[in-house]
Structures are given as structure tokens and as C-alpha cells.
Automatic annotation (TrEMBL):
<feature type="region of interest" description="Disordered">
    <location>
        <begin position="180"/>
        <end position="240"/>
    </location>
</feature>
<dbReference type="Pfam" id="PF06242">
    <property type="entry name" value="TrcR"/>
</dbReference>
<dbReference type="InterPro" id="IPR010421">
    <property type="entry name" value="TrcR"/>
</dbReference>
<feature type="compositionally biased region" description="Basic and acidic residues">
    <location>
        <begin position="210"/>
        <end position="222"/>
    </location>
</feature>
<protein>
    <recommendedName>
        <fullName>Cytoplasmic protein</fullName>
    </recommendedName>
</protein>
<feature type="compositionally biased region" description="Acidic residues">
    <location>
        <begin position="231"/>
        <end position="240"/>
    </location>
</feature>
Amino acid sequence: MSDILMPKATAVWLVDNTSLSFEQIADFCNLHPLEVRGIADGEVARDIRGADPIGNGQLTREELDRAQANDAYRMKAQVSRHAELLKPQKKAPRYTPVSRRQDRPDAIAWFLRHHPEVTDAQISKLLGTTKSTIEQVRARTHWNAANIKPVDPVTLGLVGQLELDALVKKAAEKKAKDDLKKGILPEDPTLRPASETGVVETHEEDEEADYRKSRAEPKAEDVFGTSTYVADDEDDEDED
């Protein structure tokens, strides 16, 4: 037996288009014979469309004819090129050129300063470094700690901008979810105290004083350059 692409769909096709026994189909598709019987009875995989194993390269016509001529024969599946393409490709460890490896501590320091929400595991995977190196940079116990300065890893050529943006976004979303579970509400940058915005609250007393001042009599300058208030009409009448 071998791994078959879409085993139930393949079993549906074999039930509908061949004279193979339930055991032969079950053995080829890695299914139970009762499950194949259920497919034949219309109780299982009712809405699944059959997939031709010959057309997709998992079975040869000669192999099928040999199995139909002998009920005891068990068909052998071929390795399909489609199956090879669908297999998950494991990423190789990130390789950093020797000339760039000395720049990794600077990139680590940049993450620690500007994006503390990014975990050590994420930094390690992105930069191809180790958690011990990250801890040394954080604790300033690295052998070259005196010369380490935060530098954008994109500028250093260690990662691409899209890859960095995706990582930072993912880390920020995870941190927001964790904070929400802990009951920590996100800070709203649009709501700041008046002391930070420079806006001073106005009191009613100040407004009233400004209003009275605006209604006061204007001053007039005499010929000597001194200022005096203009007398009201009532004062003139008293003098008379």
C-alpha cells in the first residue's frame, strides 16, 4: 500500500468504472472494505466526484487489467508527480553569508529596542541565530557588546522588507490577543491628557474677567504722553 491522492474519490471511480472487489479497492486506496461497500451502496462519499487514478498517474492500465483478471492480486500504485508536488516542502535552515554574520548582533539589538513584542524564537528563525546569542545581546554580555548598535536588518541585507513586515505584524497581533486575555486594553494614541497637548482649561472666572476688561473705557493720551481714563458724562455733571 502507498499514499493515494484523494483516496475516497479514487475509490468512487474504481467502484463505478471497474470490476475490482471491495478488498482490492480498499487495499489500493488505504480504506476499510466496509467503507468501500458503503461507497458502492451510496451511503458514503455521496457528493464526492470520482478521480481517475490512471489519468493522474497513480495507476497503469496494465496493473488495473491484471487486478481485474485476478481477485487475489493487489495493485501497486505508482509514485505520482502530482503527489510529489503536493508534499509540504520543509524550509532549509536560513544561510547567512560569512561576511554578514557579524551584522546579526546589530539586527538583534534593533529588534530588542524597536520591537520587543517579537519573541526570541521568531528572531532566531528570521536571522538564523541562536537564543543564547540573543540573550547575550540583551544582557550586554556579548563579546562585542561595546560595538553593537541597533541597525535595521533590511538595511543590513539579512532579510527582505516584506518578510520583516509580516513578522512584526504577526507578533503585534499575538501580543494584542495576549493583552486582551489578561484584561489589558490597548492605548488609544488619539486620547491624550491636556497637559501633553498643551491645551489649558478655561475657568468661568477668567472668562468673566476678560469680558469686563473688554467693556472698560479706553484710555486717551494727553499731550505730555501720559494716559488717563476718559471721564464719564456723570462725572462732568458733578463738576458743573
